[in-house]
Amino acid sequence: MEKTLNHVAGAFRWSTEKEVTAIEIAVSALAMAVPALLAARGHHTGLGLIGGMAMSGTVSHGRLRVQAASAGAALLVLMLAAGLACGLGRLGGAGQVGLLLISGLAGIAGGFDRAMVAASIRFVFYLVMIGGIVSTTTAYPLFIFAVIIGGALFAVVLHMLMAGVVEHIRGHAAEEIEEERKPTAKQKFNRLRRSLMEPVGWQYPARLVFCLGVVSLIHLFFPGHDIHWAGLALVLLIERRPERLPLRTTQRVIGVLFGVLCAGFLSFLSLPAWADVLSVALLGGARPFLRARNYLAYSVVMTPLMMMAMGSADHALPASALLDRLFATVFAACLILLVNQTTIHFLPQTAAPKA
Questions:
Q1: What angle do CA 97, 98, 99 make, to 5 degrees?
Q2: Which residues contact 220 (CB under 8 A, 6 or more apart)?
Q3: What is the mean pLDDT of residues 84-108?
Q4: 30-63 burial, b for 16+ CB within 10 Å, e for fewer?
Q5: How many whole angstroms separate alpha carbon 306 and alpha carbon 241?
Q6: Is the distance from CB of 78 to CB of 152 less than 8 angstroms?
Q7: How many angstroms separate the Cα of 44 from the Cα of each of 103, 150, 277?
Q8: What is the mean predicted confidence (pLDDT) over 98-104?
Q9: Whole-angstrom Cα distance, residue 75 to residue 89?
């Protein structure tokens, strides 16, 4: 009982380790709100915010050159994910098989190093999200791609302009960070190759593909339900090393519960387009701050944003989708817990160390 209470208390714990500047908050808000405002004229508000959402939090701190390289890499990841999603989204069963294969390859590539871990998760997340949008809306895939990448380009330009202003104000006094000795690309590749010679090296991509495959099969039997939401939840919740009861899973489920209530309230108000854009700005601005403080609170603000992104490509999100997506999140969490338990039972050495 005490362990359960500690686990729940940990889900609400507030962190103050990372600093979040007012500039980061402003850039995050504008990066989503401005493209959403422009896209709102064609009733594509949700598509407009995806590019800014994808680029938020992907740019490293430090010198302008380092930030530009980080932003460029994140943009390439999004372009690749969006391009493949637009190509596979309307191929039916063949597209689903292709998505599973590509997701598995991304999961394997994530074992290269830490930067590749984050990039592979973002890649699969937007592959699933944009693929779901393409398959469920009437908007042309090329148009969807153009709106998303246009928003992402705006976010990159905005961030780099603000970073340049900050660096100029500080008198180019960028902090010199002492470089640690890092393994070479060849060493990283050899380590990845060695890991793939054992079952442990395959457990993450196997869990990822299996869970997404289950979601795809369920979609065949229940096409009327928005099962793509479960796919997004799976990608966000599956860790590279399995845990019996991951704290993030608890935070995500509780956060989505409150987020669905928030989205339901916004849906009930039937706000005009300009008010929807204002909501995007407020939620987008809160996103980087809450992400650094508490994942549960971050999940609360992300839920309405993701619902807008997936439900406003060419139609308003129906109220029935609120409960549908809540159930999909709970299903995804239960599936992950089951798969984690099974993996730890057969491969105990893969389990994440206890905190």
A1: 90
A2: none
A3: 92
A4: bbbbbbbbbbbeeebbbbbbbbbbbbbebbeeeb
A5: 26
A6: yes
A7: 27, 13, 11
A8: 95
A9: 20
User: Tens digit of pLDDT for each residue in 107-145?
Assistant: 999 988 888 999 999 999 999 999 989 988 888 999 999
Q: Is 41 helix (H, G, I), strand (E, B) or coil?
A: coil
DSSP-assigned letter for residue 174: P
Enclosing H/E stretch for 117: helix 114-136
How many helices and strands, by DSSP H and E, does the chain display?
Answer: 14, 0
CA distances from 165 to 88, 170, 293, 299, 337 (A): 41, 9, 26, 31, 46
Residue positions counted in the chain: 355
Distances (CA, A) of 160 to 107, 121, 155, 215, 292: 30, 24, 9, 39, 21
Q: What is the pTM of this model?
A: 0.90
CA distance 6 to 291: 21
Nearest to 305 by CA among 345, 354, 262, 254: 262
